[in-house]
Sequence to fold (759 residues):
Amino acid sequence: MTLLEARARTGAVARINPVAKLGASALIALPLVLTLDWVSASVALLLECLLFPFAGIGWREFWTRTWPVWVAAPLTGLTIALYGETSGTIYVDWFFVRVSEGSLELAVATFFRVLAIALPSVVLFVTVDPTDLADGLAQVLRLPARFVLGALAGLRMVGLFIDDWRALELARRARGVADRGRYRRFFGMAFALLVLSIRRGSKLATSMEARGFGAPVERTWARQSRFGGREWVLMAIGAAISAIAVAAAAFAGTWNFILGPG
Amino acid sequence: MPVETPAPAGVEARGWGWRHASRRGWAVQDASFRIEPGERVLLLGASGAGKSTLLHGLAGVLGGADEGESHGELLVGGRPAASARGIAGLVLQDPDAQVVLARVGDDVAFGCENLGVPRELIWPRVRESLDAVGLDVPLDRQTKALSGGQKQRLALAGALAMRPGLLLLDEPTANLDPAGVGEVREAVERLLEHHPATLVVVEHRVEVWLPVVSRVIVLGEGGVVADGAPADVLGREGARLAAAGVWVPGIPPAVPGPPVDAPGAALLTGRRLAVARVKGRPVASGIDVDVRAGSVLAVTGPNGAGKSTLGLTLAGLLPPAAGELQATGALAAGAGPSPIRWTSRQLLTRIGTVFQDPEHQLLTQTVRDELEVGPRALGLEERATADRVDELLARLRLDHLAAANPFTLSGGEKRRLTVAAMLATRPRVLVLDEPTFGQDARTWAELVALLAGLRDGRDGDERAAIVAITHDLDVVRALHAEVLELAASQTDAEASA
Fold:
């Protein structure tokens, strides 16, 4: 029982360094975060859709992994349509709800933007193994090993917390205190889980220390995290999607820099 | 490919002592001894004699001055233990607390990486260490899919890969079933043949390690109280050690007599029962079971067979996945036939549950409050509550701890407390998950006597029904239990194949 499954995956995309996946996702997201227009977002989304079949996951898995995004995107759009900044013709005006030409345009842009940013991140990260990510963060990005490995080891304990939570729940029923005061009980259990996790954490820290973690020598890495051709290709694809989306928006005259004037 | 073998490291303690920053008393005081390189030592002592503290000290993981205060000297390989990190390899009791990484190979490599071993030397060491402990699984096998015994051998391999001159084992088999205990002991014997390191092992169950060790050191008040060849030390100190809770071969703990009367009426009946912790994923099925007053039912079987899940289902905490579980009129007493539909309060006087991990069921800040939780939930008067609590405190030797925080108690004390907390509402059925796991001989004998008393009904109480989920065949015998053995489940067989 863990939140992150680390199934061994095969295929070209699965072998790409997670740092490159992180980088490509960031390259796609950056310009889309900076503009609020429907052209750049939908062009990026279109290009991404052409690439998804090559992402190394099946369609079934694609939908099971991305459905929250498909739910969130229209909801975000709807919210903007109803409450977004008003401009142009007003179609509906009812208490706080004010649907206008401008808010509808923003809604469409937001809908595409959520999809265009979230989908590639989700799809690329399906094939990321946490251990490989930690190796990449420490060896390629040179983040401190203590921090990265501590987080990685902690992540592995999430599964134990889920089991703990179940046991705490059952134990409260057995102790006769589960009939009333649901909210109080919830906080009591949350506190108990905190205590248990600190104890588990300190035990884990002791055994890591016993294995020389934090020893005053230069740490070596059993697995080399490579950043080569494949990785640069993925980054280039990310950059290209960004560039084409921005160019299309500029060409269509819809580029709308959120930090800039008007 | 034999990699360079390190020299075994000697150990020397000169009046060494340690006091944890949060405690008033010294955990170890004035310990002086000398262990020659390559010696194999069993370290014994009563609970709280400071065995673990000494082992942690030797491993250099006690921490600095803010963690506690020390006196004297503790040397490993001629250097202060705290700065000799990498010379000692430590394996602890809890299998889950030692797995660092997600894949078997990476986990074994972890220590080598930390010590700065070059990459091309790490992988041969990893394979050699896994061979030495007989853990024959692929390097990319998920560590969470390993059994308890396999996890302990993995921890052993991880320590071995660091090429320690001193191997320290802190109750490495206390949390394992009998098969796991055998696995780990054999692994240690095998690796010592190929890598002659100095060995110091702490363990309550002496007979497990007697074939391996050549010397026994007994820690007690004021340092080392006995030291010598195993036969001599156990001959001289055996009775005293047994009274202090050590399992000394030839001195078994006292066991109660058989039940006086034949089992009474069934209180719970299960027919074609299937049990599941997570909905839709049954771990055992087709179970027919009767839980009878005046009788102990022992649920046995290998790890992963669904014993605990069956226990929680019988206890009215999990709904049956299939089949039916019914409480007879004698137990239900008007609450309906299906225990899972009872309220939490109705459960209190009918079925009590003692969880495997006591920390899951502790609710309050003091031992006394803990015992009052059940009677309070029942709405018992203050006076009656106080009487019950006082009686239990005395009966389970917890009276001197009444004001202590339950989380600060020792393992045996916590176990006694959780049992007492359940007895406070006098349930007719008591379900216990591994009640004697990791307990010293003294606590073991007390628990067994207590359960036998509940079974037979003492002081005019009605006879209770006991369900004990256990690996401990001594408990099964001592309580004259009826045995329900669950077979290894399909999924488990796949996982360990």
Notes: The domain at 266-496 of chain B is CATH 3.40.50.300 (Rossmann fold). The CA atoms of residues 49 and 357 of chain B lie 23 Å apart.
